[in-house]
Amino acid sequence: MFGIKHIKFDAMTFVLHFKNGAIKREGRGLSFFYFSPNSSIVAIPMGSNDLPFIFAESTNDYQSVNIQGQISYKIGRPKELADVLDFTVTDYGTYKKNDIEKLNQRIINEAQTATSSYIHGIKLKDAIRSAKAIEERILEGLKSSPAIGMLGIEILGANILGISATPEMARALETDTREKLQQEADQAIYERRNFAVEQERRIKETELNTEIAVEEKRKQIAEKKMESDVQKADNDRKLREMKVEADIALENQRKELIAQKTANDKQEAETQGFVIEATLKPYKDIDWKTLTALNNNPDPKFNIALAFRQLAENADKIGNLNISPELLESLLKDKPEA
Fold first, then answer.
1. The Band domain covers which part of the protein (predicted)?
2. Higher model confidence: residue 335 or residue 105?
3. Pairing between β-strand 49-58 and β-strand 31-35 as defined by DSSP bridges
4. Which residues, 6 or more positions from 46, have their beta carbon under 8 angstroms from its beta carbon?
5. Three-state secondary-structure class, residue 70
6. Residue 81 lies inside a defined structural domain of this protein
7. How many domains would you assign to the chain?
């Protein structure tokens, strides 16, 4: 009535009440009466906002990519924003202009500028895998932008939700990736087989080294056995030499013994010969007949035999000699028993 109005705002809205071009009241969540003809009310939302975007950019190898994401921000200095954009509301609380879209567009433009400078310097494959790098570039570009600083807003974050190439290029990349994966699989199979071959070679080499070591041990054992045999043969030779030397010494002793015995026997024989010669020397010149007589043999056969010998020696002097058979028979008979 008479131009006096009442208006109320929530706690997430910062209000500037201008009266005759000067600020009469300001703050969040205000509720007041005002005179409409000389009043102007600015209402700036203070809550955070999520601003989605889609960029179409070209990479260093002239391939198109679509970058989809969102930027989170809030208005930190509303009075500075009110100096740049018009957030004036009507008596019914609606905005006279839609400058919130201008604000969003300026933020998107700054984000796209930061993204473009990075995407234009890399290739398609790198761009598809560079979501984190793009997020960092957008945050860095927005926070360092003078235009964003003049708007009085705070950038809360930036998220890249997807980076995609054109359908044709995506299929080409899938084919290329599939081929590379196949090559990697083949390489893995080759490396696995090569590893198996290498392991087999190592096993064979270990077996050969083991055989060589065994042969070396056998060789050492054979050499030790030969040394033992040589030592044994040398010991046997020395034993034989010692035995031969002992036999030679024994034979020498035996030879000396025989020589001594021979000398003793010779001396004994010479002694006996001398004794016999000395004993028989008195009878040397005596006639045998005398010796026979000295023998004084009582055997009549012996005496008759001597008689016959004398007869034989004097046969030329005997004319006739008669010997009776009884005499011969008695001579031939054995001596009668006593």
1. 18-193
2. 105
3. unpaired
4. 12, 13, 14, 28, 74, 75, 78
5. strand
6. yes
7. 1
Query: Is 4 exposed, middle or buried (CB count within 10 Å of its CB: 0-12, 13-18, 19+)?
Result: exposed
Helix axes 131-144 and 99-119, enclosed angle (nearest 10): 130
pLDDT, tens only, 195-228: 899 999 999 999 999 999 999 999 999 999 998 8
Q: What is the token pair recorded at 267?
A: 């001396």
Pairing of strands 31-35, 22-28: unpaired
Q: Maximum distance among all alpha carbons in the chain?
A: 238
Question: Would residue 323 count as lying in a domain?
Answer: no
E-strand ranges in the chain read 4-8, 13-19, 22-28, 31-35, 39-45, 49-58, 64-75, 88-89, 153-165
Helix (H) / strand (E) element for 283: namely none
Phi and psi angles of residue 40, each rounded to the nearest 5 degrees, phi first: -140, 130
Report pLDDT digits (tens) over 149-182.
888 889 999 999 988 888 887 777 777 777 788 8
The reply to whether 248 falls in a domain is no
Say what the pTM is. 0.50
Which CATH number do you get for residue 59?
A: 3.30.479.30
Structure confidence by residue, pLDDT tens digits, 113-157: 888 888 888 888 888 888 899 999 999 988 888 888 888 889 999
| Chain centre distance of CA 8 | 83
Question: Is the pLDDT higher at 244 or at 275?
Answer: 244
Report how far apart, in Å, the C-alpha atoms of 94 and of each of 41, 43, 87 are.
11, 9, 9
Whether pLDDT at 336 is above 60:
no
Domain span at residue 34? 4-165
Q: How is residue 314 written in tokens?
A: 């004097």
Q: How far is CA 60 from CA 116, 132, 134, 160, in A?
A: 11, 19, 15, 20
Q: Are 7 and 91 in contact (CB under 8 A)?
A: yes
